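[step 3/7] fold_predict: job queued, chain A
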Amino acid sequence: MFRLITPVFRLTPRAQKTFTSVSRPVSASSSFTQSRRLFSEVARYDQYEQERVTQFLKKLGMEKYGPKFPTFQQLMTTRSYEMRRFEIPTKHRKRIRKEVEQYKQNLRTEFLVARGRLFNKFQAQQLKAEEHKPPVVAVTDEQRSVLFQQTMQDIKNLSQ
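[step 4/7] structure written:
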């Protein structure tokens, strides 16, 4: 009368491996090595982000403000009033915001151009597919009845 309710989600094999590996004892050296490796990857990513920020601000001649933006995304999303808290002068804030908006506009344009190329490629593939379709021939009712009679005659001849 009562059914056992099964869970809706299932763990992926990788997740199962992760959860089962937690229950096993891990040596201190392997745990330390894994955490050190993770720490070095995070440090490399942070360094890469900081280099992107510095490179962007260096084009404007304002690399001294690089340490105030830990990530490139923060540089792209920081508003003028937030930069004011960082004690960046008004003239520099306006210039940074102008360049950020121009950078975003260039990204949008590149995206639209790429999307347009993909769309044009898709249209070209559809046109090629339509070229290979056999032409549709219009058949009158008289021709259809003649073809039907001939087909029926052929079927009778095969059955005899």
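[step 5/7] annotate
Residues 90-131 form the longest helix (42 residues).
Confidence is low (pLDDT under 50) at residues 1-9, 19-24.
exit 0
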